[in-house]
Design goal:
Shape: elongated
Structural class: alpha/beta
Number of helices: 15
Helix content: 40-55%
Strand content: 15-25%
Oligomer: single chain
RNA sequence: GGCGGCUUAGCCAAGUGGUAAGGCAGAGGUCUGCAAAACCUCUAUUCUCCGGUUCGAAUCCGGAAGCCGCCUCCA
């Protein structure tokens, strides 16, 4: 079955065909580094992580570019308020962003271009747009003339004359021909303080939209395969990106546009007044396991609104525990031969896992395939001991699934310290001596330290609580 | 006002014409010193509501209600 994506451009499921066979270029709108990213932001980055991981699973070489917007009204405002340079102000948020990506086991993109280090590319592009009649100067700024790009609106299916623009015209400080025209270059104003670039376009700073057009094309070429972002970015941001890029090159900018729906918390949209714009640190402090958070962010189809609840987080923790227990159970197997049911289970699971994700990253049946797989292997194991060969085949399959999911083979533990090891040894001895009161006491003590013991036929296993 | 989305069990969530996946939670059982884990069995006559089309609809059409997003550099 072929990989298909729902393309916002056509509003249809389309078979995915990269420009160059086996290689995929994708641009993903990244964070504005004016604050610590919240769980809603990470929903989008998680979707993009799933996308890139599955493309790789299918054998593609992926080049992902994610921008870091380190200049905009808010970053300028806040850095001026703190009285420190812009780059110093944004540095800490960039660091937090990458730390959170690691905590959520989100793979790194190939490039993270920063807006402030790509000013020349943006200036060049604005110059081309001016030459081609898509831009015009007004005061110290440069604007994109939407009327010069008849296809404007093809992504969002919005018609300009239908937009509510009234309130905006009055409040706008700049001079524009048409209210919906947007800034390519913003002339310096006193509020910008020390933040400006002296360029051929004058003293000022780039508009937001030109950033993504210029940087995506620098790293991925004038036409590339996939562009993603949150649904809120569809209009006007992505619409503007198309107008700029296609206005400048005359070529199709992006073949597949994928948009991710938003996340709500406990049935309510995130807002400062509700205090539910959680960061990753907030969730950690509330005691949530971050693999469970990853599972939750992953487990709802990306085009559906995701309801993040703490009850679901608890459920996710238990689900992950089950998968990891299964993984651990594969370690101690012996014996020769092979169980034919195992090969059948592997084929069935792979087929369902892949056909589901092929269908516009339909994650739910893919997870169902993994859980069915666990069950099938366990049933087969009840009938006949798992041989070494079987266990290895199961493990290889599970690792393949987890290369996409990233929740099973995650090292969160660290090794046991000697105190815990000693307690486990003591308890084993107590059980041998039939001193069950003492054994139970030690088990409770370890439990309070976050260590769970499981006594099986082959001895006692331990694991950490999630 | 324009454009778009959603409504499936206690919770999360698949399913887009053939008779309700999966996870969590819950109940009973096997196993175990007791637990835990694992395994087995059970848990939506029903898919927001009302009409219609069809041999057959959660799925298609019409209508209603509720919730939500974009149209303001908010993923």
């Amino acid at each position: 079955m072929a990989l298909k994506f729902f393309n916002t451009l056509t509003r249809q499921n389309e078979e995915f065909k990269p420009i160059k066979d086996g290689e995929v270029g994708m641009y993903t709108c990244g964070p504005t580094v004016y604050a610590q990213a919240h769980i809603g932001n990470f929903r989008a980055y998680m979707f993009e992580d799933l996308l890139r991981r599955y493309l790789k699973y299918k054998g593609n070489k992926v080049t992902q570019v994610m921008n870091l917007t380190d200049i905009d009204d808010k970053t300028i405002r806040d850095s001026n308020a703190r009285g420190i340079p812009l780059d110093e102000h944004t540095k800490q948020f960039k660091e937090m962003f990458f730390r959170d990506l690691d905590l959520l086991n989100i793979e790194r993109a190939e490039h993270y271009p920063e807006a402030t280090t790509h000013i020349p590319e943006m200036v060049d592009m604005v110059k081309i747009l001016l030459e081609k009649g898509h831009g015009y100067k007004s005061g110290d700024s440069v604007y994109f003339k939407i009327a010069s790009f008849p296809e404007y609106g093809k992504l969002s299916h919005m018609k300009l004359d239908e937009l509510k623009t009234g309130a905006r015209i009055d409040s706008d400080e700049y001079e524009k021909d048409t209210a919906s025209d947007f800034a390519l270059w913003k002339g310096w104003t006193p509020e910008d303080g020390q933040v400006y670039w002296e360029t051929e376009l004058g003293k000022g700073r780039p508009g937001w939209h030109i950033e993504c057009s210029a940087m995506s094309m620098k790293y991925l070429g004038e036409s590339f395969d996939i562009h993603t972002g949150g649904i809120d970015n569809m209009f006007p941001h992505h619409e503007n990106e198309i107008a700029q890029a296609e206005g400048a090159t005359g070529k199709k900018f992006v073949n597949y546009w994928l948009h991710c729906a938003h996340l709500i918390v406990e049935g309510q949209k995130m807002s400062k007044s509700l205090g539910n714009t959680y960061t990753i640190q907030d969730l950690q402090e509330k005691g949530l396991n971050l693999s469970a958070v990853r599972y939750l962010l992953l487990a709802t189809h990306y085009r559906m609104q995701l309801n993040f609840t703490f009850e679901a987080a608890k459920a996710a923790t238990n689900a992950i525990t089950r998968l990891r227990d299964f993984k651990d159970s594969l370690a101690n197997t012996e014996g020769d031969g092979s169980n034919p049911d195992i090969a059948a289970a592997i084929n069935k699971a792979k087929e369902k896992f892949e056909s589901s994700l092929d269908d516009d990253l339909n994650i739910s049946p893919a997870f169902a395939a993994v859980f069915d797989f666990v069950k099938d292997v366990n049933v087969a194991r009840e009938k006949q001991q798992l041989s070494k060969v079987d266990a290895e085949a199961v493990e290889t399959t599970l690792k393949g699934f987890d290369s996409v999911l990233g929740i099973i083979y995650v090292d969160e533990g660290g090794s046991l310290d000697s105190e815990i090891e000693e307690l486990i040894e003591k308890r084993i001895q107590a059980r041998k001596d039939k001193d069950f009161a003492e054994a139970d006491r030690i088990r409770d003590q370890l439990d309070s330290m976050g260590i769970i013991l499981e006594d099986g036929p082959s001895g006692t296993r331990w694991k950490r609580k999630l």
